[in-house]
Amino acid sequence: MRMPLHAGHRNLPGMFSGRRSRFYDFAARRLLRPFYRRLADDVAATAPQGGAVLDVGTGPGVLLVEVAKRRPDLALAGIDLSADMVAVAGRNLGTRADVQVADVRVADVADLPFPDGSFDLVVSSLSVHHWDDPGAAVPELARVLRPGGRFVVYDFRFAPFDELAAAARAGSLFTGQPPQRSLIRTGVLLHPRCVRYVMTAR
Ligand SMILES: C[S@@+](CC[C@H](N)C(=O)[O-])C[C@H]1O[C@@H](n2cnc3c(N)ncnc32)[C@H](O)[C@@H]1O
């Protein structure tokens, strides 16, 4: 089921730029912090020692901040279509003494500015349902992952998971095994659970 806010939309550039990016940042840091802590626990448990992790559609980078606090051994990167969000993420990651620097850039998930096999883990929270063309992102996600690396999505039930799986099948990308899908608790009253969806690279 799509929420009314998302009906008929994919990417909503106006929603993630200018003043709205600052409002989103406030909400992410102050209201949704339990959610990012929960996801960061999961990312911290999934990433290999000394690994490289990319957060796609990182927004204000709050997930990266929480991951950095838990796993200082990881090399962290983030991309987002919105330059304003990337600026906010840079501030959130750059102003904390307890958080190591992360490489955060403006980019589209369908055209990632990284060499093949750059990452052990690619994650994405609440972003996939905004992508204009999830199918076009799948070859890029598979390309930047190392063999055996994982793409882990945390998103609402209405996110286009089937489009991701169909593109992977069509391109013989990822392992060809059915992605692992489970529900995880968010710690947020309004949305007590979200989907955790995992695809593994060949
Ligand atoms: C709802 S926000 C989620 C931000 C963050 N991951 C979080 O959990 O708070 C969705 C983000 O996805 C980004 N986005 C949408 N389409 C994208 C694309 N094609 N490539 C990269 N980022 C995209 C938006 O700019 C926005 O910052």
In spatial order, strands of the major sheet run 3-2-1-4-5-7-6
CATH class: Alpha Beta
The number of strands is: 7
> According to CATH, what is the topology?
Rossmann fold
- Terminal Cα span: 32 Å
Low-confidence stretches are 1-9
Order of helices and strands: HHEHEHEEHEHEE
Radius of gyration: 16 Å
Number of domains: 1
SS-derived structural category: alpha/beta
Helix content: 25-40%
Tell me about the biggest sheet?
7 strands, mixed
Shape: globular
Report the β-strand fraction as a percent range.
15-25%
| Fourth-tier CATH superfamily name | Vaccinia Virus protein VP39
Number of H- or I-type helical stretches: 6
Averaged pLDDT, please? 91
What small molecules are bound in this structure?
Answer: S-adenosylmethionine
Which second-level CATH architecture applies? 3-Layer(aba) Sandwich
Any overview of this molecule?
By secondary structure, the chain is of the alpha/beta class. The protein has a single domain (10-200), classed as Vaccinia Virus protein VP39 (Rossmann fold). 35% of the residues lie in helices and 23% in strands. It has helices at 18-31, 33-46, 62-70, 83-94, 134-144, 161-170; strands at residues 52-56, 75-80, 103-106, 119-125, 145-155, 180-185, 193-200. The protein has a 7-stranded mixed beta sheet with strand order 3-2-1-4-5-7-6. 42% of the residues are buried. Residues 1-9 have low confidence and may be disordered. The structure holds S-adenosylmethionine. S-adenosylmethionine binds at residues 11, 16, 28, 57-59, 63, 79-82, 85, 108-109, 125-127, 130-132. S-adenosylmethionine (SAM) is lined by residues 11, 16, 28, 57-59, 63, 79-82, 85, 108-109, 125-127, 130-132.
